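User: Sequence in, structure out. Go.
Assistant: Echoing your sequence, followed by the structure tokens.
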Amino acid sequence: MTDVALRHLRAELGSKVATGAVALEDARSDQSGYRSSGIPLAVVSARTISDVQAVLRIASQHSVPVVPRGAGTGLAGGGTGSTGEIVLSLRRMNRVLELSVEDQLAVVEPGILNGDFNDSLSKHGLWFAPDPASRAISTIGGNIATNAGGLLCAKYGVTREAVLGLTVVLASGDVMRIGHRTVKGVTGLDLTALMIGSEGTLGVVVDATLRLLPIPKGPRATLSALFPNVDSAAHAAAAITASGLTPAVLELLDSTSLQLIDEYLGLDLSSQGQGYLLAQCDGSESATEANKIASILRSHRGTVEVSMDEQQGERLLAVRRSFHPALAARGTVLIEDVAVPRSRLPEMFAAIAVLEKKFGLSIPTVAHAGDGNLHPNFLVDTPEIPQIVWDAAGELFAAAIRMGGTLTGEHGVGVLKKRWLGDELGSTQLELQRQIKHVFDPQGILNPGKVF
């Protein structure tokens, strides 16, 4: 059936269908380092909603799997294609279809890059708040697929809070418009929220109506603090959130992370402390809020610097954003993603230290401390991730769940975390979610083998 489907695709979509070795090989992997075991049937670069409909109609007719894909920056293997699958690339659907300054909303296609979109909004005094570390290279569609968060989500929310409505192509090829253009809307079940974070398993998003925010007024205040150990830094972060203060950015880096960044950027942070907190306050009360946060940091043995200079603030944020490039420069890395209640951050860092000793691994960890989302990273000196890392990751996930946390705060389940999904959800909820998947995709052709 795959040969017939491929002929049908070529007849209807022509040059948008690629079967060359380079295109097929690229579609097998993402930024997680995962590579599928087989070669996809084809990569189709959709440019219109009609293109997406055609792919799904043909796929349904011939029972061929379809893998929606954005820029390939995922960290869980969720957008990777394998044997006999059609990879549906949405990267060329990258237009802003509408911008309403009055209503503070925009309608965009899924392939637009997060950073490019925000650049286009800045001249209107608006911005799209979700701020994943990959914003310069990740698409809005990918942000929606994984309900991405990032550095600013403790104050401004994750992607779900910034999406008002979606246009989705179902497995049958039918188009469904869900959500609304209004700030409020509670008609029927919230299918928009259900679609966000579903990783391409329920439908293909072809446009999104997004909530925009005014760019905060006034100078931003940026704080950096070095601590004698990561435990002190984690307790300081927990104390900030417990105080009722909500900085726009609150990031925590452990000692190994600082060493890697020092090597990568030519800095000397790791000789000055073993834990590092970076905070940024925005809005008209930024200076006042920063001073309160500085007092909390000092009370937890932090050596604090406060800057109201915008360029210095950007340089400090660049230190945090350089973490993943610094890791990549060292070799193979498994970038993980768990979240715990913010009060349990110190306990989670302690659990990671125990795993490092138990398994003899280096696990440099950074955290979006403002919302309890940690990124433990497993560094290995082999091209493939060895079994010992997966064993350690399993214990990492179990520890997060014991603390009332979750397997993934923003990367998604994809392929890499599928085996542990039932540990968090339980058998009853997992089966119900599989039944919901079946309602949207009765043939099981949408991103099969991912999540469920």
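User: And one key feature?
Assistant: DSSP finds 16 helices and 19 strands in the chain.
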